[in-house]
Every structure is written in C-alpha cells, then in structure tokens.
Design goal:
With 203 residues, the protein is α+β, with helices and mostly antiparallel strands. It is built from five helices and eight strands, in the order E-E-H-E-E-E-H-E-E-E-H-H-H. It starts with a strand and ends with a helix. Bound molecules: flavin-adenine dinucleotide (FAD). Flavin-adenine dinucleotide binds next to strand 2, strand 6 and helix 3.
Amino acid sequence: MVVPVSTFLEEFGLSKNQFCPIISFGALSRQLDESELDALGRDVKPWGVTAAHTAGTTVRFTHDNRLLVRNGLMYATWLTSSPERIRRSRRMLRKAFNNRFPNHKHVNFEYVWGGMIHLTMNSRSVFGRKGNIFYSGVGEGAGIIKAFTMGTYHAEWANGVNSEVLDFLKNDKKPSWLPPEPFRTVGAECRLLWETATARGEI
Ligand SMILES: Cc1cc2nc3c(=O)[nH]c(=O)nc-3n(C[C@H](O)[C@H](O)[C@H](O)COP(=O)(O)OP(=O)(O)OC[C@H]3O[C@@H](n4cnc5c(N)ncnc54)[C@H](O)[C@@H]3O)c2cc1C
C-alpha cells in the first residue's frame, strides 16, 4: 500500500511531530478577452513568478489566458480550511491582483480556494517503508513535483527496482523535530503573523 498523504501521515501513525502544515489561498480569474490580452501584451507567453518573501504573492499567467494569484498563510491546526477563511482571503488576493494588474481590476475571479502546503521545519520530506506500507510527505512549498517524484520511486521500491535516486530519497536528511500542540500552533501563528507583517509590497 502506498500512503502519500503528507501531513495526514500523522493520522495514520506513520509520522509524529514532523509537519507544520500551512493553509494558503489561490484565486484564478476568468479567461481574459481579446482587448484584455492586448492590454497585457499580445506576445506574452504563459509565465509564473514566486515572491522572494515567504509571505509574498505567487502570480501566474496560464495557458488558457487566466491570471492567478496565491497568498495568505495560516497555520492548519485542524488540517483543513473553511469557507469562512476562504471568503476572508479574497480581500488580500484581490489587493495583490489589483496592485499588479491595474488595467484589469474589473476582471473577476472565477475560482477562489484554500488548501494545505505541507511544510516541515527544515523543508526535508518524509519517505519511508513499514513492511508493505510505503509512505511519504513533501516538506516544502513547491510540493507537486516532489509528491510526483516520491510516488514514482515508491512504485519502483515496491517492485524491487533500485536506482541512485531511490537510494538518495531513502537516505536523505529527515525532517527536524517540532514541539507538540498547543506549542506548535502558538509558535507557528506568531511566526506567520511576523512574516505577513514584514512582507509589505511583496503581498
Ligand atoms: C493555493 C495553493 C497553491 C499552490 N501552488 C503550488 C504550485 O504552484 N506549485 C507547487 O508545487 N505546489 C503548490 N502548492 C502546494 C501543493 O499543492 C502541495 O505541495 C501538494 O498538493 C502536496 O501534494 P500531496 O499529494 O503530498 O498532498 P495533498 O495534495 O494535500 O494530498 C493529500 C491527500 O490525502 C488525502 N487524505 C487525507 N487523509 C486521507 C484518508 N484518511 N483517506 C484517504 N485520503 C486521505 C487528502 O484528501 C488529500 O487529497 C500550492 C498549495 C496551495 C494551497
């Protein structure tokens, strides 16, 4: 069995005091029309930029001509987001959007969502095996590629295929220890408030 559920590993008893999950929020605009694309620059290819500051905004222009913004950091004590939090996140997402695209302030968001970014204190991932259970969790913000990679190598491990990458994943440094609740939430919320307060123009 492959259990690649990151922070949720704790609920399966496969990890303890390793993850500090963060909720972040994203908004995707409707598709831009011809005149809005002209205002953006006709020949511009799809792109993405990530803020230098931890609490800054990620911005993308997608293949289907939409603008995306992501920002907001909250500690995910209960491993879930909520409709109220997502509603509240709209203000900061809209502000980030309007600051960057003043000619597109009228373009509405078609989707707004919140989800978890599975962080560990030192950004190291969890990758292990207990009998026939293979488990993993990403430990950093750019988790999609990491999750995909670890899934691939779980499949190889389970099928007895050895490789240099598999050896690296098995022997890589482990996540550092985190204090238990309630200290974890209190510490994380303080740190996130500080990061948000100092991000300024990066939001
Ligand atoms: C707004 C936002 C934007 C992001 N943008 C990017 C980006 O541009 N690039 C990037 O690389 N990363 C991005 N991330 C982070 C990325 O989404 C995560 O790192 C990635 O999804 C982690 O993948 P995962 O499979 O480890 O965890 P998840 O995608 O969280 O999947 C875990 C799954 O386990 C399931 N699960 C939990 N418990 C159980 C159970 N008991 N039984 C069955 N299923 C269970 C959950 O329902 C969930 O589907 C973003 C995150 C957010 C919130």
